[in-house]
Amino acid sequence: MSTAVVFFEVEILDAKTKEKLCFLDKVRNKLQRILYLPVPDPQWYPARQSIRLDPKGKSLKDEDVLQHLPVGTTATFYFRDLGAQISWVTVFLTEYTGPLVIYLLFYFRVPFIYAPKYDFTTSKHWVVHLACMCHSFHYMKRLLETLFVHRFSHGTMPLRNIFKNCTYYWGFAAWMAYYINHPLYTPPIYGEQQIRLALILFLFCQIGNFSIHIALRNLRPPGSKTRKIPYPTKNPFTWIFLLVSCPNYTYELGSWLGFTLMTQCLPVAFFTLVGFIQMTVWAKGKHRSYLKEFRDYPPLRSPIIPFIL
Amino acid sequence: MSAAAQGTSKAAHGDVAPKKKKGPGALATAYLVIYNVVMTAGWLVIAVGLVRAYVARGSYHGLYYSIEKPLKFFQTGALLEILHCAVGIVPSSVVLTGFQVLSRVFLTWAVTHSVREVQSEDSVLLFVTAWTVTEIIRYSFYTFSLLNHLPYLIKWARYTFFILLYPMGVTGELLTIYAALPYVQKTGLYSVTLPNKYNFSFDYYTFLILIMISYIPRKSIGRLHFPLQKSAIRKTGYTG
How far is B71 from chain A (nearest CA, A)? Predict the structure, then answer.
């Protein structure tokens, strides 16, 4: 027995002015179809459209099915323009390529940074070369993960974010790189011991961070946007899921603590601190939404630091 | 930046209108009235101190020393206003208030107090006078607003005197920072040089120059923001 095809009539109003933007009859079930239909302003491409049931409510998703929404056969939706959008991939690639390149400019002591007699010289401290390798490795890893590992639930973010994010990443990269590669750089007090410990911590956390990214990717089959609780896998680096909701941030903090210890540089410590604060905010938000979405969410887990935060 | 108009909030407590902002409670209002009265009194003390010292000396040089302590006390006390915004008893932006108060506190402590040689400069008197008159008007404006009895004279004075006092204050501040530069450079005040074990450096001299440059965007925004408020208040017919 075939199910009857249900058609909807859809009226779209502007969320702010309440004026009718368009009226569509014979709309099939999926919301997605609406987004690609002509709307008054051609620059309102789908990624910019926020369609909601209530003017001040949350955006509906592309996959939402009209039949399951609390609307009759004539549906009224509110439209809000989210402003110019840019894809997450573009933002990530731009904000991560910057530090990679900028750090190397300082490492190779390109002219106009330090006194002319130091142009294109190399540091005499081996920890400076090690730091450059670690920093470059870190950002190359991020770029590759952006291209091949991450699965994004939202395609885009507001355009102004790219300026904000790049200022942050590029600015801090320049500030750190300036001191680490400075001709008057002072290596860590406890010398080789300190550097070795720092390197182990850094590498351990890089592997850990990567393991978590892979685990999160595997949670979600390609093309799907389903959300599931992440659990430890066979990889020991994922066992931290027992104690923490966002171990990718935990490992990221660890990596930068390692880098701070390795370089013994105050600007690096500042960068670690600021990053930690931001990641804690994100982790708490994520933890809260896990708790809201899943009744059976493991109670032992903390957002970012086991038992503490 | 005016204090919320309490008592005139017409929304009944059971009202559905979700965006109606309730003013601070009775306790908070009482506290704010006391705070603003104390601040008004404090800046009056400074004003009287300046006048008396001028009359006693017969000249306006070096008047800073006669009001140094109350100036530091009451200007630093204004940090509480950041807390008021953060807690929500005053409906202003924490960030905006923070910038304004910290800018004043910076000039009081990190420039005027720290660089002894500028204390006898006339530019100090210029900004101190501007601050004093501005603050007396501002705090009495808030006091009366909270008590729902704002004399038109005070409202008028606040928005009119601003036209003169704002550039006066900015000029005094800039000249003072400028005067401090050579001493900062000579003594390396608050500066850290390489090499050191934290691999960090800070040049207070360059920092002060950057601060002076930042006055251009910061003060232009402030200069524009205030009169905009004035016309907004005229349009809404706010009578305080």
Answer: 34
